[in-house]
Design goal:
Distance between the termini: 52 Å
Helix content: 40-55%
Number of helices: 12
EC number: 2.3.1.-
Order of helices and strands: HHHHEEHHEHEHEHEHEEHEEHE
Strand content: 5-15%
Shape: globular
Radius of gyration: 20 Å
Membrane topology: Multi-pass membrane protein
Number of strands: 11
Family: Belongs to the diacylglycerol acyltransferase family.
Subcellular location: Endoplasmic reticulum membrane
Number of domains: 1
Structural class: alpha/beta
GO molecular function: diacylglycerol O-acyltransferase activity
Strand order of the largest sheet: 1-10-7-2-5-3-4
Length: 326
């Protein structure tokens, strides 16, 4: 009986992870295709009414969205967590009377650690940080896709845009932890097992926003995120490299060629531990100067490096591993 239960659990974990991968890769295209196809059937009224409603609802993602506890607590996310497994670690308290910007590193291929930790309750964010509301900010283009936008909002995702950040940090009360994967598409192209490279030397916009709204900065590092896939890395200047960067420039994200277990899309069973660091106090400045932005950006990078080295051994890395910031 125990063996059968174990096999069933493994099956549920594999199916849960597979649905997440397929959703990430294909759900947007499927939603667009479905709506377009319905326009040429007897059900054409359904997508027509939806498009009209979407136009009226266009700015909702940037005005608090429609997060749903039911979706965030789906049992499927617990199976995703157990597949690797994933864990969320707290190093300091977050004051519910303040707002925060959590810079999450590294991006990895799909930011699975960030999504599971901050857009679901599988890792226990609400219990670990009582009174804090996690808000994962992602590419704004996703919220323009019919149906997909509803799913993204239900999980508690928001566009990583200035109006969205302004709403979350000034018009949505206190206790908001706005999570931004700082390295974005550029960092995803650098993801490879055993390598800890983050893109942020020129990423200062999040620091400027933190100063404008007086939100404390919190470094976050997901150990193991780069190990769950094996990415095909193109040589700089090659055709593949140029096509990836052209696509990133046009669409805002980079298409990564990767493999997992059995040469398929299933990720490797590698532990992913997301460690939330100590808050870095940031003053409120309505018009921060470049010197102030550079100062707090430097302090943030120092805090990230400190966090990485303090927890790397306990999270499965050797003492010789370094954090490379580009």
């Amino acid at each position: 009986m125990k063996e059968e239960k174990t096999r069933w659990k493994c099956f549920l974990e594999n199916i849960s992870v597979l649905q997440w991968i397929l959703t990430f890769l294909l759900f947007g295209v499927a939603c667009i295709g479905l709506m377009v196809c319905l326009l040429f059937t007897s059900l054409w009224m359904l997508p027509t009414l939806y498009f009209i409603w979407q136009l009226k609802d266009w700015h909702t993602p940037e005005r608090g969205g429609r997060r749903t506890a039911f979706v965030r607590k789906w049992k499927v996310w617990h199976h995703v967590r157990d597949y690797f497994p994933m864990k969320l670690v707290k190093t300091a308290e977050l004051n519910p009377n303040k707002n925060y910007i959590l810079g999450c590193h590294p991006h990895g291929v799909m930011s699975m650690g960030a999504f599971t930790s901050f857009s679901t309750e599988a890792c226990g964010f609400k219990d670990i940080f009582p009174g804090i509301r996690s808000c994962l900010c992602i590419l704004g283009c996703i919220f323009k896709i019919p149906l997909y936008r509803e799913y993204a909002m239900a999980t508690g995702c928001y566009p990583v845009s200035k109006p969205s950040l302004e709403y979350l940090l000034s018009k949505s009360g206190n206790g908001n932890a706005v999570v931004i994967v700082i390295g974005g598409a550029a960092e995803s192209l650098l993801s490879r097992p055993g390598v800890n490279t983050v893109v942020m030397k020129q990423r200062k916009g999040f620091v400027r926003v933190a100063l404008e709204f007086g939100a404390d900065l919190v470094p976050v590092y997901s150990y193991g995120e780069n190990n769950i896939f094996r990415q095909v890395i193109f040589l700089e200047g090659s055709l593949g490299w140029r096509l990836q960067h052209l696509f990133k420039k046009i669409m805002g994200f980079a298409p990564c060629l990767f493999v997992g277990e059995y040469g398929f899309w299933m990720p490797y069973h590698c532990p992913v531990t997301t460690v939330v660091g100590c808050p870095l106090a940031v003053p409120k400045r309505s018009s921060p100067t470049e010197e102030e932005v550079d100062h707090y950006h430097g302090l943030y990078m120092e805090a990230l490096v400190k966090l990485f080295h303090e927890h790397k051994v306990s999270c499965g890395l050797s003492d010789t591993h370094k954090l490379n910031i580009v």
